[in-house]
From TrEMBL:
PANTHER family: PERIPLASMIC SIGNAL SENSOR AND SIGMA FACTOR ACTIVATOR FECR-RELATED, PROTEIN FECR. Residues 88-179 form the FecR protein domain. Residues 223-286 form the Protein FecR C-terminal domain. InterPro entries: FecR (IPR006860), FecR_C (IPR032508), Ferrdict_sens_TM (IPR012373). It comes from Draconibacterium aestuarii. Coiled coil: none annotated. The chain crosses the membrane at residues 63-80. Keywords: Membrane, Transmembrane, Transmembrane helix. GO terms for molecular function: sigma factor antagonist activity. It holds the Pfam family FecR_C. This is FecR domain-containing protein.
């Protein structure tokens, strides 16, 4: 049984004498009315709280139980369903993942990447968020939207690759038709074309070997006239290592390396670029040859 003096305190007096933990324990035995619509129960509780003057003495046991009931209802009917509907897939370094979305779209996620989507709404609104790099084989149907920090990709039914890391953003079209938007600009690309975001905006290019942009799906990292800094960053992702490079990271190279043999990959990059490397556990020091 509760002390009557505690029941007749003002809210401020009660808060001074009771921790949040104790207040929550008081609410733990709360039983919500059965057989009433959730909005009716919530409105009733809110009205009771509003009718209580903050300056008069009140029965705080009832006051805090009512407040707790409001919180419980909000969580139960608002927050929890949204949390259950939210889906996310994230890969670590040296890891790839495959999944099939609710509409049948197939996705391959490269290392250190993440996608998020709403399972409940996805079939009616095919929308997802991407950080990193992924290949999509989109099921034909209504508009499919991929949102990244650097730009937006819209397709109907196609195969494409999307890369969005830091400020770098590019999209290649394998089949179908793709609309890419970024920085208030748009480009439409078709099979064999790709678009990248640079200082002048979205630049579209053609490639006779567009399939090279998705070689990573088969365990091969491919680079064409790419800066060493970007190549080393991909090495870090694919092998889960840390690279310290003492040299000119803006030098460019065109190379392929396998993602399953670190030493071989370092040889492929460093030997033609006349670089030395030293491996210490998961740390790699790379420097220019003297």
């Amino acid at each position: 049984m509760q002390n009557n003096s505690e029941n007749n305190m003002t809210p401020e007096e009660f808060r001074k004498m009771n921790s949040e933990e104790k207040i929550l324990k008081m609410a733990s035995g709360l039983v919500l009315p059965k057989g009433k619509p959730q909005n009716e129960v919530l409105d009733s509780l809110l009205n009771k709280i509003e009718d209580s003057s903050p300056t008069r003495k009140i029965n705080l046991s009832r006051y805090f139980q009512a407040a707790a009931a409001v919180i419980i209802l909000l969580v139960a009917f608002k927050v929890v369903p949204n949390m259950l509907s939210a889906q996310q897939l994230k890969t670590a370094n040296a890891q790839q993942a495959e999944l099939t979305l609710p509409d049948g779209t197939e996705v391959v996620l490269n290392a250190d990447s993440k996608i998020k989507w709403n399972k409940k709404k996805f079939n009616n609104a095919r929308y997802l968020q991407l950080e990193g790099e992924a290949f999509f084989k989109v099921k034909k149907g209504d508009q499919f939207v991929i949102k990244t920090n650097n730009g937006t990709v819209e397709i109907l039914g196609t195969q494409l690759n999307v890369f969005s890391r830091n400020e770098k953003f590019w999209v290649s079209c394998i089949t179908g038709r793709v609309r890419v938007s970024a920085n208030n600009m748009q480009q439409i690309i078709t099979p064999g074309e790709w678009v990248q975001l640079n200082d002048s905006g979205l630049e579209k290019s053609e490639s006779e070997s567009i399939e090279n942009t998705i070689m990573w799906k088969n365990g091969i990292s491919h680079f064409e006239e790419t800066q060493l800094d970007a190549i080393f960053a991909e090495l870090e992702r694919q092998f889960d290592v840390s690279i310290q490079f003492e040299g000119n990271g803006e030098r460019k190279a065109t190379i392929d390396f396998s993602n399953d043999d670190l030493t071989e990959a370092l040889d492929v990059v460093c030997i033609p670029m006349e670089l030395n490397y030293e491996i210490k556990n998961k740390k790699i020091n790379i420097s220019e040859k003297q």
